[in-house]
């Protein structure tokens, strides 16, 4: 359930009102086309904030408006593959060579790249290997064939090396089983969770009754509507999911444990266990003053945000930005979707969690003072 419109904020949620007002002020200052975000507490209705339109003369953005999730898609891929492992279809130690034998990945290497290395971004390949070929619209098979010839920078599992193209292995894996990644994720996650607008692929986006058109910056305050590109859609596990904010509310709830029959507590723990340290994240602008530690798990980043565990992922493709995060100990989560290629989302998400955790600390101090007064 979502709440929208003229929100009634609880007495302890003044911070959320202030945050929403600041985001809107910055959005107006930069003339952003549109965005939507949610705040979710486990077991309670979500708070929904919308702004702007799908395009200049389009419909107002609402809970049903569909956006591209870009690399937030990796959070779904992580959970889907954890389910495959849970169901004994694969193991984290299964070599990529066994998953797609036709490419010969690491055939002569003593330490093969495994499914676990793929999903934890620790393949050892140079970061973002052959993203340029994706954007040049090379076929998936041609890109994977090129990847298979690369020499790793480090042994698999020993260093963080973020990838997109390598996730194409999962597209081929399901195709080789006379299925597709899109149909499997629909059957295993979207339908069981009851996500009304979620899909994978370009056709899923443009077939939506209402979808947000992508926008790229011309100047700091001017935006131009762009066309939807096919490139990263060919790599569904990396960047191919589409969703509305209503879908994202359900996804956050699933990661908070509200759908244990679909996403079990053990599975949540698996995908959010730190596996490889991500030192570069510690220097991330707008975030670095809050981060004490940063790792990658299985399709999720795992941060120490001023002493609090925060599971997070962001996404960026031409014309869209997306963020999702949840704090398991607090049982709260957040997601933001934009139809603009704006770096403002980085500061918005960091500001959100700063405001939330500050409110928690203030409530704690008030409770201590109240007890001392008694």
Please, could you describe this protein's structure?
With 374 residues, the protein is α+β, with helices and mostly antiparallel strands. The chain has one domain: DD-peptidase/beta-lactamase superfamily (Beta-lactamase), CATH 3.40.710. The chain contains 13 helices and 14 strands. The strands form 3 sheets. The protein has a 9-stranded mixed sheet, with helices on both faces. A 3-stranded antiparallel sheet has the order 4-8-5. Strand 11 and strand 12 form a beta hairpin. Helix 1 (14-29) runs antiparallel to helix 13 (344-373) and helix 2 packs across helix 12. The longest helix is centred in the last third of the chain and has 30 residues, at 344-373. Mean pLDDT is 94; it is low at 1-9. It comes from Aliiglaciecola litoralis. Residues 20-342 form the Beta-lactamase-related domain. InterPro entries: AmpC-like, Beta-lactam-related, Beta-lactam/transpept-like.
Features:
three-stranded antiparallel sheet, 14 strands, globular, nine-stranded mixed sheet
Residue runs with pLDDT of under 50 for 5 or more positions: 1-9
Give the number of domains. Answer: 1
Per the CATH scheme, the topology name is Beta-lactamase
| Class per helix and strand makeup | alpha+beta
Strand order, main sheet: write it out. Answer: 1-3-2-14-13-12-11-10-9
Described by strand count, sense and barrel closure, the largest sheet is: 9 strands, mixed
E-strand count: 14
* Helicity range: 25-40%
How far apart are the first and last residues' alpha carbons, in Å? 38 Å
Number of helices: 13
* Coarse morphology: globular
State the CATH superfamily name. Answer: DD-peptidase/beta-lactamase superfamily
- Gross CATH architecture: 3-Layer(aba) Sandwich
- Averaging pLDDT over every residue, what do you get? 94
How do the SSEs run, as a string of H and E?
EHEEEHHHHHHHEHEEHEHHEEEEEEH
């Amino acid at each position: 359930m979502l709440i929208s419109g003229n929100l009634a904020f609880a007495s302890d949620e003044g911070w959320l009102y202030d945050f929403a007002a600041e985001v809107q002020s910055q959005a107006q200052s930069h003339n952003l086309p549109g965005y939507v975000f949610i705040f979710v507490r486990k077991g309670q209705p979500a708070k929904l904030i919308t702004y702007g339109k799908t395009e200049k003369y389009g419909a107002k953005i609402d809970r049903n408006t569909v956006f591209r999730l870009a690399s937030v898609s990796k959070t779904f891929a992580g959970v889907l593959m954890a389910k495959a492992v849970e169901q004994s279809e694969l193991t984290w130690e299964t070599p990529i060579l066994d998953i797609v034998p036709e490419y010969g990945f690491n055939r002569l290497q003593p330490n093969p790249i495994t499914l676990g290395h793929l999903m934890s971004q620790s393949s050892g390949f140079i970061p973002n290997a052959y993203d340029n070929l994706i954007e040049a619209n090379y076929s998936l098979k041609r890109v994977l064939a090129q990847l298979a010839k690369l020499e790793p920078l480090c042994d698999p599992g020993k260093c963080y090396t973020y990838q997109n193209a390598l996730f194409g292995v999962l597209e081929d894996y399901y195709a080789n089983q006379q299925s597709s990644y899109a149909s499997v994720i629909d059957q295993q996650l979207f339908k069981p969770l009851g996500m009304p607008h979620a899909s994978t692929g370009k056709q899923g986006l443009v077939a939506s009754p209402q979808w947000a058109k992508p926008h790229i910056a011309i100047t700091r305050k001017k935006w131009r509507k762009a066309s939807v590109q096919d490139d990263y859609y060919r790599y569904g596990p990396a960047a191919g999911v589409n969703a509305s904010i209503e879908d994202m509310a359900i996804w956050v709830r699933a990661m908070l444990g509200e759908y244990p029959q679909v996403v079990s507590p053990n599975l949540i723990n698996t995908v959010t266990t730190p596996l490889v340290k991500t030192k570069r994240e510690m220097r991330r602008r707008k975030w670095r003053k809050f981060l004490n530690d940063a790792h990658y798990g299985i399709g999720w980043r795992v941060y120490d945000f001023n002493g609090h565990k925060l599971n997070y992922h962001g996404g960026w493709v031409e014309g869209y930005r997306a963020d999702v995060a949840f704090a398991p100990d607090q049982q709260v989560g957040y997601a933001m979707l934009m139809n603009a290629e704006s770096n403002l989302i980085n500061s918005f998400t960091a500001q959100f969690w700063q405001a939330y955790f500050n409110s928690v600390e203030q409530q704690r101090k008030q409770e201590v003072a109240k007890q001392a007064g008694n």
